[in-house]
C-alpha cells in the first residue's frame, strides 16, 4: 500500500473525465471539470475519505486563439505533469483492441486550508512499451473520434478501478461523475462474480446534462472491436443497451443511487430515462476558491471562519455597505484593466458592465442579447452599458465558432455606442476576474437544456447580480427583484417555443431598460441591497460544502 491513502484506505472513489484544480494544469474543459475540482476542494475542507481518479490529458483540452474577425483556431496546450505531481511506481494493464495497454498514475495532492489532503490520480498511457496509438489515449481531452473516446473511457473506468486495487484502496462507494467513467461498473461486475446487486450497492451515478448528445453512445461494432477480449457481448447489451452502448444507461443500471444536479434537472432526467429513480443534489461552488481577493479580505474581517463554513455568509449584513461597494469597485477595476490590455476595447470603470462567459454552443444562445439591435440601443440610451464575453467552442462545433465570429461583428458594428470585448482562451483565471468584476451576470440558455450551471453561483459570492432564464439552479436561486432577475416565464408556462423566445427577449430588454439600469445609476443603495441579497441568500447555500454534506448523507453512507 502506498502512503497516500492514510489510515482509512480511502472509502470513496470519485471518477471524473476531467478535473480542474490548477489553472496551470489544463486538465479540464469547462463546467464539469471545474465542478469536479470544487468537489475535491470541499471534500478536503470537510476531511472526507475521498480519492479522485481522472485522465492526465498531456496536451490539455486546447488553447484558443481568436483573430481580429473572431475566427477560432485550436492549439495544443503542452505542459509538464512532473512540475505538479509525482509518478507513482504502480502499473496496471487494460486490454484494448486485443492489446495490453499499460497504465500508470500521477499523484496530485490537493491540500486544504485545514491541512487535509485529497489524493488525485491522473492516469497516463504515454509509456514505453505501449503501441503508438495507445500512448496517445491520455493526450487530448475530448479529442479524436468515437474509438478514441471509448479507449479513454476504458482507461478511466477499467484502468482506474485496477489502479485503486493496486494501491490497496478500500473503496465502499464509487462515484461516477457523468457517464464517461461508467465502465468501472463493468470492471466491478467482473471482480464480484457478475453479482449486479453487490455492484449497485457500491455505485453512485450523477448525470449532468439534459442534452441527448451529451450522453456518450457507442455502436456495438466499436465496442466489440475494442472490448472483445474484455467482456462478453451479452453483458454489455444487458446493462448498457440492446442496440448500442449508452454510458448513461450503463451507469443507471448498475447504481443504487442516481441523481441530477438540480431539482428541475431531476425532472428532465426522469423524462429522458423513464423507469429509473432519480434524486437531486443541486450543484454548488467552492466558496473560498471563487471569492475575489477583495471580498476575501472583507469576509475574513467581518465573518471569521467563513472559508470553511460558507453558511456564515448569511451574516453579510454585518459588513458596511460602503465596504461592499468598494470591494466590488476594486474587482471591477481589475477586470476592466485586464480587458483593455487584452482587447481592442475602451471600457471604463463607471459603466454598467454585463458579463457572459461559458462554453460556446447553440443552446446557450450567446448572441441572444443582440437579437434586436434597435431595442439594445434603446436600452443603452437609458443608461450606458458595456459587454464582456468569453468562452471556447469545441473544435468540432461549427455553429459555436460562428457565434464567436458574430459577437466580434456586433462589437465592430456597435463600436462607439456599446463597447463589447471578447476575451480569448477562457480559463479559471479569466473566470475569476469576470465573475467578480462585472455588475450583471447574464445567462440565457434555451430551456430546459441547462442542467444546473454554476457560474452564476460564483458571481453571487462576489455580490454580482444574476440575470438569467429560469432553468437549472436559477429556478431555486431566483427570488425576483430580491436575489436578481429572471428572463422570461416560469418553466410551467406552456407556450410555443417562438412565443417563449419573444417573452424572454421582452423581459431581457425591458428589465435592463426600466429596472436594472435606473437602479444601478440612480439608486445605488438599492443596487447594493441586491448585492447583499446575492451573498446572503445565494452564496450561503449554493456551495460545495452544502453539496458534499448532501452526498455524504444521501449517497455515500
What would you note in describing this structure?
The chain has 557 residues and is α/β, with parallel strands linked by helices. It has two domains: 12-284 and 546-556, Glycogen Phosphorylase B (Rossmann fold), CATH 3.40.50; 287-541, Rossmann fold. Helix content is 41%, strand content 18%. The protein is built from 20 helices and 20 strands. It has helices at 31-45, 132-135, 146-167, 183-191, 196-202, 220-227, 233-240, 247-253, 263-272, 287-290, 293-302, 321-342, 373-382, 398-413, 428-437, 455-461, 474-477, 497-522, 524-539, 544-556; strands spanning 12-16, 50-55, 63-66, 72-75, 86-87, 92-96, 99-111, 117-124, 173-177, 203-206, 217-219, 244-246, 257-260, 279-280, 352-357, 385-390, 419-423, 440-443, 465-469, 484-487. Strands 1, 2, 5, 6, 7, 8, 9, 10, 13 and 14 form a ten-stranded mixed beta sheet that branches. Strand 3 and strand 4 (72-75) form a beta hairpin. Helix 1 (31-45) crosses helix 20, helix 3 (146-167) packs across helix 4 and helix 13 runs parallel beside helix 18. The longest helix is centred in the last third of the chain and has 26 residues, at 497-522. The chain is globular and about 70 Å long. It starts with 11 loop residues before the first strand and ends with a helix. The model has no long low-confidence stretch (mean pLDDT 96).
Write the layout of secondary structure elements.
Layout: E1 12-16, H1 31-45, E2 50-55, E3 63-66, E4 72-75, E5 86-87, E6 92-96, E7 99-111, E8 117-124, H2 132-135, H3 146-167, E9 173-177, H4 183-191, H5 196-202, E10 203-206, E11 217-219, H6 220-227, H7 233-240, E12 244-246, H8 247-253, E13 257-260, H9 263-272, E14 279-280, H10 287-290, H11 293-302, H12 321-342, E15 352-357, H13 373-382, E16 385-390, H14 398-413, E17 419-423, H15 428-437, E18 440-443, H16 455-461, E19 465-469, H17 474-477, E20 484-487, H18 497-522, H19 524-539, H20 544-556
Parallel strand pairs: 1-2, 1-9, 2-8, 9-10, 10-13, 13-14, 15-16, 15-18, 16-17, 18-19, 19-20
Antiparallel strand pairs: 3-4, 5-7, 6-7, 7-8, 11-12
Amino acid at each position: 500500500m502506498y502512503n497516500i491513502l492514510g489510515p482509512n484506505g480511502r472509502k470513496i472513489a470519485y471518477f471524473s473525465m476531467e478535473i480542474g484544480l490548477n489553472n496551470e494544469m489544463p486538465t479540464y474543459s469547462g463546467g464539469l471539470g471545474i465542478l469536479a475540482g470544487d468537489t475535491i476542494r470541499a471534500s478536503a475542507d470537510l476531511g472526507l475519505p475521498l480519492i479522485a481518479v481522472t485522465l492526465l490529458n498531456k496536451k490539455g483540452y486546447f488553447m484558443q486563439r481568436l483573430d481580429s474577425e473572431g475566427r477560432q483556431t485550436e492549439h495544443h496546450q503542452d505542459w509538464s505533469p512532473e512540475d505538479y505531481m509525482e509518478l507513482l511506481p504502480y502499473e496496471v494493464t487494460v486490454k484494448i483492441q486485443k492489446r495490453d495497454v499499460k497504465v500508470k498514475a500521477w499523484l496530485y495532492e490537493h491540500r486544504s486550508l485545514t491541512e487535509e489532503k485529497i489524493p488525485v490520480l491522473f492516469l497516463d498511457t504515454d509509456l514505453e512499451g505501449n503501441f503508438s496509438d495507445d500512448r496517445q489515449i491520455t493526450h487530448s481531452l475530448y479529442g479524436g473520434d468515437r474509438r478514441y473516446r471509448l479507449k479513454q473511457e476504458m482507461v478511466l473506468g477499467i484502468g482506474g478501478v485496477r489502479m485503486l486495487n493496486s494501491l490497496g484502496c478500500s473503496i465502499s462507494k464509487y462515484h461516477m461523475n457523468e457517464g464517461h467513467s461508467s465502465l468501472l461498473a463493468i470492471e466491478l461486475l467482473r471482480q464480484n462474480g457478475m453479482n449486479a446487486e453487490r455492484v449497485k450497492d457500491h455505485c453512485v451515478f450523477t448525470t449532468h446534462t439534459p442534452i441527448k448528445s451529451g450522453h456518450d453512445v457507442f455502436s456495438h461494432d466499436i465496442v466489440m472491436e475494442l472490448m472483445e477480449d474484455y467482456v462478453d457481448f451479452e453483458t454489455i447489451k444487458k446493462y448498457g443497451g440492446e442496440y448500442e452502448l449508452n454510458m448513461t444507461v450503463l451507469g443507471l443500471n448498475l447504481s443504487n443511487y442516481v441523481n441530477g444536479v438540480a431539482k428541475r434537472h431531476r425532472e428532465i432526467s426522469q423524462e429522458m430515462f423513464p423507469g429509473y429513480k432519480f434524486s437531486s443534489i443541486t450543484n454548488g461552488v467552492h466558496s473560498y476558491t471563487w471569492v475575489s481577493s477583495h471580498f476575501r479580505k472583507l469576509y475574513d474581517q467581518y465573518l471569521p471562519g467563513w472559508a470553511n463554513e460558507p453558511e456564515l455568509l448569511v451574516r453579510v449584513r454585518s459588513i458596511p455597505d460602503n465596504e461592499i461597494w468598494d470591494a466590488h469597485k476594486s474587482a471591477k477595476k481589475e477586470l476592466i484593466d485586464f480587458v483593455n490590455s487584452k482587447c481592442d476595447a475602451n471600457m471604463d470603470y463607471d459603466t454598467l458592465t454585463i458579463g457572459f462567459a461559458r462554453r460556446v454552443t447553440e443552446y446557450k444562445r450567446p448572441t441572444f442579447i443582440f437579437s434586436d439591435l434597435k431595442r439594445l440601443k434603446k436600452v443603452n440610451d437609458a443608461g450606458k452599458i458595456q459587454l464582456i464575453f468569453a468562452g471556447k467552442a469545441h473544435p468540432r462545433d461549427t455553429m459555436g465558432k460562428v457565434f464567436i465570429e458574430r459577437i466580434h461583428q456586433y462589437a465592430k458594428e456597435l463600436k462607439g455606442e456599446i463597447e463589447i470585448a471578447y476575451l480569448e482562451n477562457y480559463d479559471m483565471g479569466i473566470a475569476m476576474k469576470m465573475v467578480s468584476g462585472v455588475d450583471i451576470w447574464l445567462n440565457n440558455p434555451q430551456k430546459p437544456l441547462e442542467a444546473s450551471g454554476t457560474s452564476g453561483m460564483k458571481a453571487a459570492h462576489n455580490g454580482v447580480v444574476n440575470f438569467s432564464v429560469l432553468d437549472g439552479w436559477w429556478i431555486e436561486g431566483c427570488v425576483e427583484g430580491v436575489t436578481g432577475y429572471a428572463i422570461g416565464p416560469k418553466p410551467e408556462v406552456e407556450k410555443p417555443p417562438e412565443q417563449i423566445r419573444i417573452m424572454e427577449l421582452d423581459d431581457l430588454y425591458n428589465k435592463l431598460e426600466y429596472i436594472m439600469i435606473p437602479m444601478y445609476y440612480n439608486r445605488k443603495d438599492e443596487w447594493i441591497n441586491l448585492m447583499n441579497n446575492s451573498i446572503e441568500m445565494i452564496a450561503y447555500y449554493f456551495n460545495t460544502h452544502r453539496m458534499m454534506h448532501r452526498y455524504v448523507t444521501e449517497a455515500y453512507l
